[in-house]
Amino acid sequence: MAGQRQRPRGQLEQAVLDTLWSADGAMTARQVLDAVPEPRPALTTVLTVLDRLGRKGAVEREQRSDAPLAFRATNSRDEQTASLMSTALAAASDREAALLQFTGSLASDDLDVLRRALDARARS
Question: What is the DSSP letter of 77?
């Protein structure tokens, strides 16, 4: 049906970022399109998403003499996740409550990783 979204808002951006994170290097918009799972959007839609991600600072353009314009993620998946977590914490009106709620929801393995990271930071 015309004008109806085939994916929830933000899901295509995530699929494009996942594709770029999985790549060995920069990718053309066509390569990104070919790697995005079904349902495949139009090439112009992928270009729009890449442009929007570029304005958000998540993607950078790379002009190569031997190929069309290519794109790469500016941060790794881990760096992006950490940035999202920092942004969410900064938006909390009560940071302590947010941290307590977050840590209370972590699995024991994740808590162990967090403890080791905090211990390493305290020693440095």
Answer: H
Block residue for tokens 């969410």: 88
CA–chain centroid gap for 51, Å, is: 14
Cα separation, 42 vs 123, in Å, equals 52
DSSP notation for 68-123: EEEEEESS-HHHHHHHHHHHHHHH-SSHHHHHHHHHHTS-HHHHHHHHHHHHHHHH
Domains along the chain with CATH numbers = 1-91 (1.10.10.10)
Residue among 44, 37, 42, 47 nearest 69 (CA): 47
pLDDT digits (tens, 9 = 90+) for 90-103: 999 999 999 999 99
